[in-house]
Specification:
mainly alpha, 2 strands
Length: 293
């Protein structure tokens, strides 16, 4: 850098002339912005940001628990609340579908206070027809990959249920199993619903069904009076007994073991539905062609 006063050649970017002392420029002090330490986010916000779907499921169970508490403690809400009706609807529909699979004509009846499914005498002709249809479809599509082993498995499982005592066990279990399955569908709808309020309503309904089933089963284990009424049939104001009692008698197993299994089912089945729905959704999204710009 050449000094404009004396002409001395200085090195570049000097502040003053090394010969005459002429000041070229003043050093500017750059003020660096002070970065304040960010407060650490609590567990609530970390889960919400890193695991949004898991957070929505937890929200659904929280709402379901709150709704269950309100509808059981406040009688007016119990009578008018649509979620309570959904409990009996899903249970009796499960018995009905399980019966129809084996040719048992069934008619469900339910209200805000309970439900019952009327099963009519079955006929052996219907399950035989179903086996023949499965066998025919397996033969027709036998050249397709995996059809023969799949057909054999389906025919074997259906025959095992339709022509043995396991049919009555399956029909008795259909109510609670369908409630758990439909709860999983509601939770799935709540998790992937884009509208926040609508998603919470669907998820809350799923959580309500799961919480209701769990409370019912746990009460069977802890409340002796309730347990005795359930086993004797007094709880249903009829000569019939509870579904879990029929299952225990049909399988010749301990009643407490059956209750424990259905407590497990109440958790596992909705989770399986959520996992399958996620797998199908990811596969469907991955198969969509991307838009070309």
């Amino acid at each position: 850098m050449k000094c404009p006063k004396c002409g001395y050649e200085n090195i570049e970017d000097v502040l003053c002339c090394n010969l005459c002392g002429l000041v070229f420029k003043k050093e500017k002090s750059e003020k660096k912005p002070i970065s304040l330490p960010q407060p650490e986010k609590n567990l609530y916000y970390r889960i919400k940001e890193n695991y949004p779907k898991l957070f929505l499921i937890a929200e659904s169970f929280l709402i379901g628990s709150l709704l269950y508490f309100l509808t059981t403690k406040i009688w007016v809400l119990y009578c008018i609340f649509v979620y309570t009706f959904a409990v009996f609807f899903t249970h009796e529909i499960g018995h009905t579908i399980a019966g129809l699979i084996f040719g048992n004509l069934a008619i469900p009846a339910f209200s805000l206070f309970g439900g019952i499914t009327f099963q009519f005498p079955d006929t052996i002709l219907f399950p035989i027809t179903v086996v023949v249809v499965f066998l025919s479809l397996t033969i027709i599509f036998r050249k397709e990959k995996g059809v023969i082993p799949a057909g054999i498995v389906v025919i074997f499982l259906y025959s095992l249920l339709a022509f043995t005592y396991l049919k009555d066990v399956f029909i008795s279990a259909g109510g609670h199993l369908s409630t758990a399955f439909i709860a999983g569908l509601f939770l799935t709808r709540g998790v992937w619903e884009e509208k926040k309020v609508e998603g919470l309503l669907w998820g809350g309904l799923g959580g309500f069904l799961v919480i209701g089933e769990l409370v019912y089963f746990i009460k069977l284990k802890t409340d002796e009076s309730f347990r005795d009424d359930y086993i004797s049939g007094v709880l249903f104001d009829s000569c019939t007994t509870g579904d879990l009692v029929k299952i225990a008698q049909g399988l010749n197993l301990n009643f407490d073991l059956i209750v424990n299994l259905f407590i497990l089912f109440a958790f596992v089945i909705p989770c399986l539905v959520l996992l399958v729905a996620r797998y199908l959704k990811e596969g469907r999204d991955g198969a969509r062609p991307r838009k070309q710009n």
